[in-house]
Amino acid sequence: MGQITLSSVTKSFGEVNVIPPLDLQINDGEFVVFVGPSGCGKSTLLRLIAGLEDISSGQIIIDGTDATHAPPAQRGLAMVFQSYALYPHMTVRKNIAFPLKMAKVPQAEQDRKVENAARILNLGSYLDRRPGQLSGGQRQRVAIGRAIVREPAAFLFDEPLSNLDAALRVTMRQEISELHQSLKTTMIYVTHDQVEAMTMADKIVVLNAGRIEQVGAPLELYTKPRNLFVAGFIGSPKMNFITGPEAQKHGCHTLGIRPEHIEVSAEGPWSGTIGLAEHLGSDTFLKVSSDLGELTVRVPGERGLHHGQTIRMGAPADKLYRFDQNGLAL
Amino acid sequence: MARAVSPSRKFWTTLAAWSVALVIFFPVFWMVLTSFKTEASAVATPPQLFSAEWTLANYQDVWARSDYPRFFWNSVVIALGSTLLGLAIAIPAAWSMAFVPGKRTKDLLMWMLSTKMMPAVAVMVPLYLVFQKLGLFDTRIGLVLALMLMNLPIIIWMLYTYFREIPGEILEAARMDGASLWNEIIYVLTPMAVPGIASTLLLNVILAWNEAFWTITLTTTKAAPLSAFIASFSAPQGLFYAKLSAASTMAIAPILILGWFSQKQLVRGLTFGAVK
Question: In what order do the strands lie in the sheet with A211-216?
Answer without folding.
Answer: A77-80, A154-158, A186-191, A31-35, A203-208, A211-216
